[in-house]
Design a protein that fits this description.
This protein has 72 residues and is mainly alpha-helical. It has a single domain (1-72), classed as Guanylate Kinase phosphate binding domain, CATH 3.30.63.10. Helix content is 25%, strand content 6%. It contains 2 helices and 2 strands.
Length: 72
């Protein structure tokens, strides 16, 4: 990052508390320049979720192979 100062903001909470709603509100605001880091998960995709947008969905085997191959 060429010594650029950045602020890391973590939005965390239990399932169903509205993290997605808050995230959408923040990132849909055209006056902000935030970047979103998409997480990877082995859980099943929920209705309305899109692979590569909401999460990167992997099987447990795929996830473990990525760990074994030092991809994280």
């Amino acid at each position: 990052m060429d010594n650029e100062k950045v602020l890391l903001f973590v939005l965390s909470g239990p399932s169903g508390v509205g993290k997605g709603t808050v995230r959408k509100k923040i990132f849909d605001d055209p006056t902000t320049s935030y970047k979103y880091s998409i997480s990877m998960t082995t859980r099943n995709m929920r209705e309305g979720e899109v692979d590569g947008v909401d999460y990167f969905f992997k099987t447990k085997e795929e996830f473990e192979a990525l760990i074994k191959d030092d991809q994280f």
